[in-house]
Amino acid sequence: MSSRLERETPNAWKANQYDNLSNSQAHYEQTGPEIWEQTLGRIDHLVVGVGTGGTICGVAKYLKERKPSVKAWGIDTYGSIFKKYKETGVFDKNEIYPYVTEGIGEDFLPQNVDFDLIDHFEKVTDRDAAIMTRRIAREEAIFAGNSAGAAMAGLLQLADRFKSGEVVVVVFHDHGTRYLGKMFNDDWMREKGFLDRKGLTARDLVVNRQEAPLVTVDRAATVTRAAQLMVENDYSQIPVTADGRVVGSLNETQLYAAIVRNPETAHQPVETIMQPAFPFADIFTSLDALTGMLTPENPAVLVRDFKSEQTYIITRSDVIKALS
Ligand SMILES: Cc1ncc(COP(=O)(O)O)c(C=O)c1O
Q1: Cys bridge to 79: 99, 115, 147, 164, which one at CB 3.0-4.6 A?
Q2: How confident is the model at residue 271 (pLDDT cuts 50, 70, 90)?
Q3: Atom of ligand 1 nearest to the CA of 27
């Protein structure tokens, strides 16, 4: 349509990002030097989603001129012809089919793609790209677009090609606001079959939380102190510790019953009324297993991330939030 409009409209001009080589030239003159300067020339690998090819080819040309060992890894989609064309020289129409990922992969050969500058193409599925787009937002607080998810997922697929200590640069092309109705919309994700509820783990429930020490109360503290801590933090339950080790628990219902029964309890040590400790679970415990552990008698589970050594508390309201 844009070509027709160009033909039909007097004095019209079409930028044509696909075949206008000013596209890759701009990246050669600007993005390439920017990456070179910001990595102090230490870059070893460049990972970029390929649409018009302007970004990867302009940047790769500049970097390879400065440092020939730099490798350029192009991220492609299933449904695009790039990878097969690079590997076999065959333009295979059978490779072409509709896909969801926007901005990368093509069904023709744009002039901005210089296959000699791209060392390898890695294909990423729509699902992996979509899931990674959300992960980038959750885990890195970077609200990026879907081709960023594809690039990051592709980078991880390529992880064994990078040596320890090498510097890898990945380009995120756009921001997440354009995908609020898609990758950042749970209904859309479910419709596409990209959200597998069964696949949720404890990690998904705590990933948005600030890294902060778990709020606990020492078993020698008074019941009043425990109640204060629960009110201040808006908690319905709290783990009880001795020398930093979890030895018991208190919950709102039982604390309330104990104080109503005997108001003197308020001044007694927590250990006089505490209940058994909440169970511990690994951060990769499935949501199904967690729901089995959460019962009226046991309102919380302590989830441990063994890598970061952080402990989180998960309650029924966390599960409700994750499922609704
Ligand atoms: C969202 C998005 N990601 C990635 C790309 C790919 O970049 P390039 O066209 O430079 O290959 C584009 C291209 O327009 C894009 O719009």
Answers
A1: 99
A2: very high
A3: 10
